[in-house]
Input
Amino acid sequence: MHQLHTGSRRSHRAAAMLVGTVLATSALAACGPSITTGDATPSADADVLVAPTAESPSGEITIWDRSGDLFNVFDSVIADFNAKYPDITVHHEAIDIDAKLQNTLITGTDVPDGVFLDDAKVAGFSEYLWNLDGVLEPYLGDISEQKVGVNSLDGGIYGVPFDSDPGLLYYNATALEAAGVDATAIETYDDLLEAARQYQAAVPGAQPIHLEQSPFLGQLQLEMYASQLGTSLADENGELRLDSPEYEQILTWLDTVQKEGLGTRAEYLSPSDIAPLESGQQVFYPWAIWFSFAPQQLLPETTGDWKAMPLPAWEDGGARSGAMGGSSFVLPKQGENSDLAWLFYEFLMFDEAGYTAVWGPNDVYPDGLNTSIPSFVPAADPAKPLFGPVEALGGQDLWATATEASTEIPVGTPIPTWWTGAVDYLGNNIQRMLDGQLTPAEVIDQSTQDIQANLVDRQ
Output
C-alpha cells in the first residue's frame, strides 16, 4: 500500500487506501485455467504459476494500474519490454481497482492478467491469485525479506514485490535551525519529544509533530512504528498480537504527544495539514519515503527547507526504520495469459533495463522516481542511485538515505486478510485516544476484543 506518493498518486492512492476496505469474499473459489500460453510446462500444483518456455512467447496481456503518475511510468516502460518481447502486446488500462477488482474476480468476467495492488490487500484476494513461489524462486534471495513476508500466505507467495517504503523522519531544517534546535541530535523517540518541546518553547503555539487523523493512515503509521520493533498486528500464523509491550509503548508515545500539545492533528496532506507545514508550526513528519512528494509539489513556501533522516529508534541501538505501506503486482488465476503478464513484471522488477526505466529519469520524473525505492536489492544499491538528488529537500541525496534505512527494516510477516477491516476498530480507537476518550491500554483491550471476535474468529 504505498503508497500516496505524488500529486496524482496522492489522489489515487489516498482514495485507494481510504476507500479500500474491500476484501475478497470466499463466496466463489477461483479455478484458473491451465497455463499453456507460450508453451509453458504444466505444474503439478494447479495453483502455482509456471513461466512460458517458448523462445519467443507471443500473445496479448491486459494490465490494470491506477491512473496517475505510476500508470504513466509503467506505460512508458512498455516499449522497453517490447524490445525484449516483441510478440507480446500489452493492453495497459487505468482502472479504479478498489471499485472493480473484487466483483471482476468473483464473476470471472473480463479478468485482467495482472493487477497493481496494495500489499495490505494481497492476502484478501489470495484465493483468486496465482501462487508465484516457483517463478520468483530465482530472485528470492535478492528481494527484501520484508516484502517477501508481506506477500506470503500459507506457504505461497501471491505478489511480485514492487517497492520498498522505508519510514523516514522528515523535518523542516530551516525552521529548526532558526529556533536553535539541532535535528541531527535526534536518535530516539524520546529525543524527538525533547526536540519538539524545545521548538515549541522557541515558537510559541507550534505543534511540531504530525499526528495522523485518518483512521486508515493512522493504523498504517502505527504499523510502521511496530515494524521498527519487529512486530505487527498478526504473527506469521495470522494470530492477533496487538496486546503487547511494543504496541503499548508506541500508543503511549502518541498519547504523550497529544497530551503535551506537541502534535498537529490533521489528515495526511489535507489543507489543514499543509497550512501548518508551510507556516512552520509543524516541523516533524515521521512517515514513509513517499512524503518526499510534499515539498516537491505541495509546499511551495517551504520547498528546499525540508530534509529526511532515518526514523528515531524506540530504544538506543534499535532499528531506525520500519515499513509503511507498499504495493505489489498480482496475477489472477482466471487471467487468460497471466503467464505472459509474469514476463512483464519480471522485466519491470528484476531486469536492469526494466527497473532502471521505472526508477531512473523518465518523461514523468525527469530526475527519477524518488517516492520509493526498489524492493529488489541489487536495484537498490546505495552506490548506484537510480534517481538524483532532490532539490526540494535542499539537494539531499535521498537515494542514499532511503536505501540505507531500508536495510534496517526488520523482517515482516504476511498481512492478514482482516487487516483492512481492523481499521474499523483499531484505526478508529487510535483516533478516540487522540480525542482523549481512551487510554492506550483501553485502545489495546477494546481493539483486541473486537478484532478477534468480529474478524479473526469469523475467517
Q: What stands out?
A: The first helix runs from residue 7 to 19.
